[in-house]
Each structure stands twice: as structure tokens, then as C-alpha cells.
Amino acid sequence: MTKDTFMSAFTFESFKCEVSFNEIVDSYTGEKTRELVLRNNNNENFRAAYLYGEGLKEISRSKSGEKNNILGEFLGIKKNDLNSMMSFFKKYGFLFCLKDYEHFITFHINDVVYIKDNLEALINIFNAQDTNNINYKTLLDSVLFLLLNEKRDIKIEDNICYSPSNNDLLHYIINANKIRFDTNNNIVQIPRGDGGTIPAYRVTDHILNEGINDVIIDEYKDLMDNNDDSLYFLRQIVKSYVTKNTSILNIDECLIIDFLYHFSRRISIISLDNISLDMPFQEEVYEVLIEEKNSDLKQALLKISKYLIEKELNHFLSEIKPKYDANTMRPNWNLPSLLSAMYLSLFYLDSNQAMHRICQNINCNQLFLVSKTNQVKKYCCVYCTNAVSQRRYRQKK
Ligand SMILES: [Zn+2]
């Protein structure tokens, strides 16, 4: 046991990487994209530890001035910034274990971005749990991203290295069928303004105070008869809302369908083509969401976000096994990859004590771990603190 791992919750060992890239042309679209070409650098060990209050860090770095914030630097990689992506893997090794590959392997940069976005959405939701100051825009974008983005496995050669949490609920919504009212006895007559009544279908609802909602049958039929493609996902949401089967879905999943239904009806329709972490909606949408009249939706969104934290984290932790180390006489974890070490670092994040904050150096903007009681720390590292004070000094001159 070395001094630098004494205060750590867990350690991780692997190798740094040799990285270059290929330009590839998609044979169907003609579009140019790039893929990484990498293999372990067997001469350079990589060792990291999770230090309480500091996060996941490389241990025994030779150059002490350099940034050492694995999670923040990974999330800070911009979509098309191949250089920062390559230098990350040179510095900390690849996301997945490459020890079974003697040769160079290729990995698509879009896949790195996809993995990063899934992790980033989860961390955004973690950060939003600070109930004094909830950023509903980030929360909404991240929750919808995790619920509705297309999940896909990622392979290195023929081996699956990444498999996201399941998308069963999205499939349930996409496969929902129209209801046939004539065979159903949940039909009620609701009073109309002119003294008459109008038939409606009574649905259980986990957001409205009444616990039920009456969907007017004529409006339902109009929507189903409308073949407009832009309303496709709305039709599926409404179908699944009306036919919601509580013996298949758990209470959280019912709440999610109810949320999607009321959000679509009151605020904005959702298009599956626009699901991304940045700006799927116009600014007004977020402004309407935070209005007082939608406080039931905000509450539901928070509940859903807690459900997603458990679902995502438990999914990615399931590949990690506890491992007792008799040499050090300390507990440790069997970590299959650098990515799993990043997810485990969230497991150790005690949200009552610490949180991720965004570095205020505008050229950095990376997340870093900080104690909640620390109001002073604005920058992720000494380098950023110095960069900002030098910039201020130059501006003054
Ligand atoms: Zn910084």
C-alpha cells in the first residue's frame, strides 16, 4: 500500500494507449468520418485511484502541473475535437480493456461521443438533485435523452464492449396499439358547456391530483386519423397513455408515460429525431415548464430523474465485482474498464457532501468534484486558476 492510495475508495490499473486515426468514407452516404486506431502501450502502466473529495485521479503522475481530472476531462471532450479525444486516451488509456488485442483496433469517434453523452446525462441528473437550485433545462434534456435515445451495443471487433441500459419502455411506447372503445367499459359521459355530454375514456393518472383523467374520445380519434409524420411520436405516447397496462409496467414507468403525455399536451410535442443533450427544444419550452401551473410536471420530472439514477447506475455497476486484496488487507473492486471506474466514482459520490461543479475558466468549463460546503473553489485546477488571473491581469494593463 503506497501513501497515495491510502485515502482512496478504490484503485484501477491498466495501460496508456498509442492512438492515431483513420479517415473513412461511408460507402452509402459518401460522408467522411473518422475512427480512432489504438492499442495498449505496454511500456506505460496507468494507475488511478478514487480519492474522497477529489474524484478519480491518476496516481504518481510525473508532471505535476498537468490536469488530473479523469471524469471532467472525458466529459469535456467536444464532439468534433479529435485531438483532445486522442490526448485523453494517450494520457489515461482507453475506455475499455485492450489487453486481449495485440494489434491495433479501430473505434468510431461517434461511439466515443455516444458513450460520453450517456454518462454525461447521468451526471447532469446527479447534479440536479440539489433541490435549492434545479436547472430544469439540463434536467429535462438529460432525462429525455436517457429515456428516448436509441440504445445500441458497441463492439470492438466482434466483442461487445459497451451495452447501455435497456430501452424497454421506449419499445412499449413505440409498439402501443390503438384502443377499441366499443369493447371497453371505462367510458364516461362528461358534461359539455351546452348542457349535453360528451363521451370520454377514463385513464388512471399518476400526475394529476385526481388520480384519473378523462380523454375525450373524439379528440383521440382525430389524432389517430391524422397521418402527419411530425405527430407520429405524439400518437404513440397517447396510445400508450390510454392503454397503459399496470400489470406490465411498474409505477415509475407509468409515471414516465403520464409525464410524456402531459408534457406533450401542455408544453411541446417531442420528436424522436431531435433527442440530444443540447437544445432539443426552443427556449420558451423551458420557460413554460418552470411556470407555477406546471409544478406537478416538475415534481414528476424529479421523481423520474431519481428512477433513472438508480436504473443507469445499477446497470453499469452490475459488471463490477468486489474483490478483497490480502496483500493490502483492504477492500477493492474488480474493474473491467476505465469507463466502469468512472461509473464507480459516481457510486462513491456522496451527494450530501460533494458535487460536481463547472470550472469557471471559459476555456475549460470541465466538471470537477468539490465539497458542497466549499463556496470558494471556482476552478478545476491550479492551471485554470492561473490562466484566469493572468487573463485578468492582461486585461487590466
Ligand atoms: Zn478548468
Quick recap of the structure?
By secondary structure, the protein is of the alpha+beta class. Helices cover 37% and strands 23% of the residues. The protein has 2 domains: 3-149 and 310-396, no CATH class; 170-274, no CATH class.
What does this protein look like?
The protein folds into two domains: 234 residues, no CATH class; 105 residues, no CATH class. By secondary structure, it is of the alpha+beta class. It has twelve helices and 13 strands. Strand 8 and strand 9 form a beta hairpin. The longest helix is centred in the last third of the chain and has 23 residues. Strands 1, 2, 3 and 4 form a four-stranded antiparallel β-sheet that branches. Helix 3 crosses helix 4, helix 7 crosses helix 8 and helix 8 packs across helix 10. Bound molecules: zinc ion.
Number of domains: 2
Structural class: alpha+beta
Order of SSEs: EEEHHEHHEEHEEEHHHHHEEHEEH
The distinct bound ligands, ions and cofactors come out as: zinc ion
Low-confidence stretches: none
Q: Could you give the distance between the termini?
A: 50 Å
Mean pLDDT: 91
Task: Spell out the key features of this protein.
397 residues; 2 domains; three-stranded antiparallel β-sheet; 13 strands
